[in-house]
Amino acid sequence: MIKxxxxxxxxxxxxxxVHHFANDNHLDGTVFQAFxxxxxxxxxxxxxxVMSIAYGESARDRSVSGHCGGMRAVAxxxxxxxxxxxxxxxxxxxxxxxxxxxxxxxxxxxxLLASVLMVQxxxxxxxxxxxxxxxAWFVSDIMFCYLLFLPMQWVIERYRYGWAYLLVPVMAxxxxxxxxxxxxxxxxxxxxxxxxxxxxxIPAFLLGMLLWRVVGRMRGISxxxxxxxLLLGVTALVMTGWFVMAGNVxxxxxxxxxxxxxxxxxxxxLALTDSVDCVATRLLHLPALVSLGNASMxxxxxxxxxxxxxxxxxxxxxxxxxTAVYLPVSLLMMVGISLWVHRRFYPGRI
Length: 350
Known about the structure:
Elements: H1 3-24, H2 30-55, H3 59-62, H4 68-102, H5 109-116, H6 126-129, H7 137-158, H8 162-181, H9 187-196, H10 202-218, H11 225-245, H12 251-254, H13 260-273, H14 279-284, H15 287-294, H16 296-316, H17 323-345
Helix pairs in contact: 1-2, 1-15, 1-16, 2-7, 2-10, 2-13, 4-7, 4-16, 7-8, 7-10, 8-10, 10-13, 11-13, 16-17
């Protein structure tokens, strides 16, 4: 396990929490929007990166090669990932369904069926892809990425320029779709095309896979503590600038592809410095941060119900809390809940 990458999961999950809290409480600011777009892209690239660490070396034997065993490998991977994600996914969805019923909100049962089948992000309707536990659209997308992981990895391993055979057409299609369909007069459709629909998340996932091949060739490099601090410091400055400038970028880029270069730098820097004993790495290796990174999926899938229930209860009792109190208290309690859920039901990473 690369501890620094687990800490990145934790940081991303915390930022997404703040993003949703800001939306719920009508807090304006470009940075709050970037806190959603940026970390979501991190998660897709990080998933491709980590999956390559776990399965990359045996991909030639485990991927689709025209044999029945290859298809069984894909099915086995999908079943394994489903078993890990499904409990949290369905608990979050059930909690939101109960709240909608209790508050007499409109329940769209067709959307419920799509959510149960994890296909909500394939439907170009916000009442579908953001139904019930809204962040759960990510699961619909990442399961599609997992479905293609072994076939893509096999192409990369099988052919000398397999990475190019995948990357070039994938990027060409992505940017063509983004430019043509991502700037319409319908903001919801733009959001769906750029941010939600599963195939448009494949480029980030594939970039994560390819980055691991780059890092694998560089991990023999020995960095000093000073070099590690410098590399991570520069990376932090670059990422800070990326967030500051996000509001000046067109939506068809800022929701996804804008984040690819800075995220690539961050993943490479964190992987290369993970074993370097420097101040920055010690901070990233703090047990609390790494533990939250391990529990980040529980945090991600349960924080929306938590925010919704607390908001409803406070409103029911006529209680208004200042943001300076409500945000940190709610965040700390959600951290505690996610850590408890993870330790109680998930012995390892999800």
